[in-house]
Amino acid sequence: MSPEQRIDLRSDTVTQPTPSMRRAMAGAEVGDDVYGEDPTVRRLEERAAELLGFAAALFVPSGTMGNQIAIRLLARRGEEVIVDERSHIYNFEMAAMADLSGAMARPVPSRRGFPSSADIEKALRPDLYYMPRTALITWENTHNLAGGTVASSESTRAMLAVAHRLQIPVHLDGARIFNASAALGVEAAKLTDGFTSVMTCLSKGLGAPVGSVLASDVERIAEARRIRKRFGGGMRQAGVLAAAGLVAFDETIDRLGQDHDRARRLAEGLGELKGLRTRPEEVQTNILMLEVTEDGWDAPRLVQALGAEGVLALPMDSRIVRMVTHYGITDAGVERTLQIASKLLG
Ligand SMILES: Cc1ncc(COP(=O)(O)O)c(C=O)c1O
């Protein structure tokens, strides 16, 4: 089966650049960005700062690097960083905060990805000389492992109130903040208000091939630029990549709602099949966690059987399968997925 015929629901990172992205990349005006001479990168950084509601932004190769630069910027060696226990920073970034910044993660549990302000407050260290200091709180919106959940404004406000009262900086892993914005019908800059720094990814639901941005105030972004170089993320004619990011901002933010509708439709259809459990009412954005309840099936087996029919998904453990919609998934792709799943389980 050719890659074009496959229905690839593994992640929203699998998208191919759109024709307009490819055109913009081919025609991008570029320069050496380590010398600050790439006009397309400058434009992307300005646009990102504006969309996220900050004074400055920095183009970085990946979401992981953006998060880790923020941690390096805001925490010192031997200090603690509060993370949700299912967060990307804690689970999928290779313990980079320990390796690159000498910081220690302090995981806090949550039901839907957003620890309560009371639980966060309990995890903060008292000011005692024989305990580590809490340097930073992190927050992930939307939350990947929790199933694309969107933080309510109440939970974000309550967490920020604690952080501001105790003067602890807060970094937002907003890899999919534009999905949260589309789901709530609220501008991204409103959802980032009160955070010290925000990372967002161009290469997930927005569909660009490479890159993320880190936004904060002017002084912190100047320091972040130095850290990016130290981490090996200084890029040269990076405008060819930034050009696709600019198109992503212009053309793909407004269509994210369609991905959410399709994820919900998948959840509804799959949930009707014997042996699968979904909670369509909890599918808020483009990520769907599917529970395999049928004896004789498990998540890896289901993923393998779907894959043999050209539908790709990701097993998360023995029972949970993740499916993610993106602009490469059409209504027809959703219906085809439902037909194939129904044939396998029916
Ligand atoms: C919530 C979240 N944060 C950060 C990242 C890291 O992005 P990257 O893969 O570009 O390093 C991801 C990637 O899936 C993610 O889902």
Please tally the helical runs, counting DSSP H or I stretches of 4 or more residues: 14
Average predicted confidence as pLDDT: 97
Rounded to an integer, what's the Rg over CA atoms? 20 Å
What is the share of helical residues? 40-55%
User: What compounds sit in this structure?
Assistant: pyridoxal-5'-phosphate
- Percentage beta strand: 15-25%
Question: What does this protein look like?
Answer:
With 346 residues, the chain is α/β, with parallel strands linked by helices. The chain folds into two domains: 7-14 and 255-345, Aspartate Aminotransferase, domain 1, CATH 3.90.1150; 19-251, Aspartate Aminotransferase, domain 2. Helices cover 41% and strands 16% of the residues. The protein contains 14 helices and 13 strands. A seven-stranded mixed sheet has the order 2-8-7-6-5-3-4, sandwiched between helices. Strands 9-10-13-12 form a four-stranded antiparallel sheet. A two-stranded parallel sheet has the order 1-11. Helix 2 runs parallel beside helix 11. The longest helix has 16 residues, at 256-271. The mean pLDDT is 97. Bound molecules: pyridoxal-5'-phosphate. Pyridoxal-5'-phosphate (PLP) binds next to helix 3.
Would you spell out the secondary-structure blueprint of this structure?
Layout: E1 7-8, H1 19-26, H2 39-52, E2 56-60, H3 63-74, E3 80-84, H4 88-91, H5 96-101, E4 104-108, H6 117-123, E5 134-140, H7 153-165, E6 170-173, H8 177-184, H9 188-191, E7 197-201, E8 212-216, H10 218-230, H11 239-251, H12 256-271, E9 276-277, E10 287-292, H13 299-308, E11 311-312, E12 314-315, E13 320-324, H14 331-345
Parallel strand pairs: 1-11, 3-4, 3-5, 5-6, 6-7
Antiparallel strand pairs: 2-8, 7-8, 9-10, 10-13, 12-13
Residues 62-64, 67, 88, 140, 144, 173, 175, 201, 203, 212 line the site of pyridoxal-5'-phosphate (PLP).
